[in-house]
Amino acid sequence: MPDKCFCGAWQRAGDAIESPDPRLWVIIAAQLDWHAMRFTLQTIGMLAISNIFMTFAWYGHLKTLKGRHVMIAVLVSWGIAFFEYLVQVPANRIGHQVMTVGQLKIVQEVITLSVFVPFAVLYMGEPLKMNYLYAGLCLLGAVYFMYVRT
């Protein structure tokens, strides 16, 4: 009884495996890459949205609720963080289908810096410093080491 191989070639036990059409492998690879790319892009987009919420939850109160009691700032921050979690948790579940936990964490850190720098400069009015560039370069190194195959 013939068995069907993954590549689409028919084979009987003990028979030599025929080389499948090389175009078939290109199609399979393209589909696998598109699948992974779709999940990766969806994860990055959702993590960016969640990070905007989280940045405001963590630091927005320093400007907007400066004169208010700390418990008001805590409650407002928790309310904002709730919406962050509604996006972040599904993003990590989607991303974990194509990335390791370590890779997800590094992607999150890159997004965090990408969101935080404009927030600090434009919203909080802090000066743009070279330190942000140096931190970004360090993160690029971290990305490389998390994605390099060992």
Write the layout of secondary structure elements.
Elements: E1 3-4, E2 10-11, H1 22-64, H2 70-95, H3 101-123, H4 130-147
Antiparallel strand pairs: 1-2
Helix pairs in contact: 1-2, 1-3, 3-4
What does this structure look like?
The longest helix is centred in the N-terminal third of the chain and has 43 residues, at 22-64. The chain contains four helices and two strands; from the N terminus they run E-E-H-H-H-H. The radius of gyration is 23 Å and the shape is globular. A hairpin with a 5-residue loop joins strand 1 and strand 2. A two-stranded antiparallel ribbon has the order 1-2. It is mostly helical. Helix 1 crosses helix 3 (101-123).
- Shape by Cα distribution: globular
Fraction of residues in β-strands: under 5%
Helical residues, percent: over 70%
Provide a count of the helices.
4
Q: What is the topology, as strand order, of the major beta sheet?
A: 1-2
User: How far from one another are the termini?
Assistant: 41 Å
Question: Mean of the pLDDT scores?
Answer: 83
Low-pLDDT residue intervals, each spanning 5 or more residues: 1-13
Question: How are helices and strands ordered from N to C?
Answer: EEHHHH
Rg from Cα:
23 Å
Helix and strand composition category: mainly alpha
Quickly count the domains: 1
Tell me about the largest β-sheet: 2 strands, antiparallel
Number-wise, the strands total 2
